[in-house]
User: Fold these one by one.
Assistant:
Number 1:
Amino acid sequence: MPNKGKQLLTVWGSPGSGKTVSAIKLAKELADQKKNVLLLLCDDICPTLPTIFKSKTPIDVSIGEVLTAPNITQEVILRNCVSFDKNPYISLLGYKAGENPFSYAEYKKDRAVDLLVLLRHIADYVVIDCSSMLTESIISTVALEVADGVLRIGSCDLKSVSYFRSVLPLLSEPKFNVDKHIKVLSNVRPLQDGEEYKNAFGGVSYTLPYVQAIDEQNSSLTLFDSIPGKAAKAYDMVLKVIVKEVFGDE
Ligand SMILES: Nc1ncnc2c1ncn2[C@@H]1O[C@H](COP(=O)(O)OP(=O)(O)OP(=O)(O)O)[C@@H](O)[C@H]1O
Ligand SMILES: [Mg+2]
């Protein structure tokens, strides 16, 4: 079982900053350590499942079924998880192709809390890929509140700076603990002035480099594979340190 009770990591950040890629790579890193990981994909505007792996059979289960079930039970959750052929340690729970925010009845915060509490019993670790649109995603907002750790991901562009400037005030209540967020600058290219953006974000703890092979994996739906080539080393090293900081030593 995980050490120190740290189990649930929420990955949140500005639109297009690399939340989904980072969440997948973190889940894969834990799975490579033979931990059971549940990757929760919150985006209900661009459902993530059809964009990250090639399913042999059409996916006909959804997190929407779970959040709107009369009772959220382990059985309902497990029935709606997608198992992942390539890696038996990873399960996925997200919206399926074609769904949108109107596909299901509205759910309230208590449902999202119930789901996250139960996930702690189902998996060794839970990695949550949040939606940037917090005002539209109750599950993402709850994930920020109840996580054991939050990775806050930004990128080197003014849109990212603008996003945090407008959204962080929405998280000013102490329950969100924004001071504890682990700030990450993602997708950083060699010629980009990382320092300027680090300052704009009030300092960052980690920098995840831009790696072309990752972008290619994203396009070919192979992000759950290891990253090929030398450039992957620097990326993987940062990832391992983040996992260690978030979940502690075994
Ligand atoms: N370290 C990286 N190196 C190269 N490309 C990356 C890296 N991280 C992310 N990308 C690319 O950046 C783009 C955005 O990444 P991703 O989809 O993970 O962002 P996101 O924050 O989840 O976006 P959204 O807000 O739409 O959910 C993708 O094209 C992805 O391939
Ligand atoms: Mg995403």
Note: Residues 13, 15-21, 43, 132, 186-187, 208, 210-211, 214-215, 218 surround adenosine-5'-triphosphate (ligand 1) (CB under 6 Å).
Number 2:
Amino acid sequence: MSQASKGAPSSGKTLQGQCLCGSIHYQMQGPSESFSVCHCTQCRRQSGHQWASAQCKDDDLIITGDTLSWYRSSPTAKRGFCSACGSFLFWALDGEGKTSFSLGSLNSPTGLRLEKHIFVADKGDYYATTDDLPQKD
Ligand SMILES: [Zn+2]
Ligand SMILES: [Zn+2]
């Protein structure tokens, strides 16, 4: 694994995750990046709170199971969830060739660390962001 940069961990092992009911399993065959907590309204509505995710290349992502549904949440992006248990697993921007996956759906231990907060300008008024990670509007 060549990306051993600044504490941002793409651990050398293969990350694996699943939805709550176990119908959908996925794994990454390559490095992940952008370990973020998103505070945007869409992520909060879909996840129930802020959404922690990381990103990998579509070519490195293997998804198995037949209950994955995609919801087109904007003209340029879609959100993947399990139609059996409702777990919010994926987010993908059209044409980017990458998929974001929810850190909460990974099997532990992940060996990962969050890097930043994003869309903080849209965050809910019912909580404070109290850690030292960088915040981006
Ligand atoms: Zn499920
Ligand atoms: Zn978001």
Note: The domain at 16-122 is CATH 2.170.150.70 (Metal Binding Protein, Guanine Nucleotide Exchange Factor; Chain A).
